[in-house]
Amino acid sequence: PYYVDMNQNLFLQASLHSSDQNLTVFVDTCVASPNSSDFRTLVYELTKSGCASDPSYALFPSPRSDVARFGFNAFSFVNRFPSVFLRCELAVCRYHDYSSRCYQGCVSRFKRNADS
What pTM was estimated for this model as a whole? Predict the structure, then answer.
């Protein structure tokens, strides 16, 4: 476990370990839960489809393409839950493949009207 104070800035880093130097990594979706084995019942979205859902969530510059850096302010699920667990989905893409998910950034999905 990693112990932090409420509203403390948390900085995280995801690193891709591969012999292929031509890959890049992108943080697509991160959710938090008070239960390490249940990320459906009670969850809090930090980012979804590359779009920040939490106002404190931010991406940070990275020294290499195979490292993604991000952060947010620490929070809790009311007082009865002592822990917060994270689950993040990352995309791995070819470096400089600008049509890949890694280079699209925030993807807002709007519902279309089925009338026409």
Answer: 0.84
